[in-house]
Protein 1
Amino acid sequence: MWEVANMLEIESMWEQYKGEIIATDLDGILCEDDHPQIPLFLPPFPIDSIITGRHERHRAVTEKWLAKYKVQYTNLYMMKHISFDWQMIAYFKVETIKKTKATVFIESDVRQADYIYLECFK
């Protein structure tokens, strides 16, 4: 399933997809892009996967932040190589989504969302 949603719709979207295999981006969804210490739209129930373009070296601080805000998840996927190229990050997310068999992916970047939709959900 693919939808373009404004940020105000994301909170209600969690409930809409309850029961699906949900994967989500981290920055821009669970926390602010520019201020990642500030929570945004935290899921009110456990989700399957968080798939982020953050580098693996940030795992400990990321897991600590997720625990602080009581985000319940099964898997946290992080990039093994540093990249600021949206296409490389989107490719990583596509390959990971395919492995997780997620039926819903919530993405904050429109370019990445378009690419992910075409590769995974069309």
Protein 2
Amino acid sequence: MNRATKRRVFVLSPRRADLVLYGDLLERDGCQPVPLTSIINAAAELTAAGPGHLVLLALEGWQDSGFLDLIKNFSPQKHDTHFLGFATSTETAQSALEAGCSECLLVPVSVDTIMQAVHRQLAPHFHHGSASPV
């Protein structure tokens, strides 16, 4: 895929290992990963990028719950940004869904499951029926 046509996907996590893993998966799949480690920087990047993006978001490991405000402020209804969250806790995933996260994956999950979820979110017509923890 030509670099000019790569779809940007923001990867937001406080853990470098997540950024490397998901960044590599996205790049191999023809996307352009944009790694971010700060909620404040993510808000600035999303504002500058404009609407219509996907954020792969770690829902755990943050010092506070600021990621929920990020989801609320950039939700599909307000900014046409979709969040694909990943967490180990059903409660955390549910909180993210209630804040406006498009879909949440409970980890560990297979690489295929992650990439299928990314493709669902990148599809031209967002499928609203998939907003539940997998």
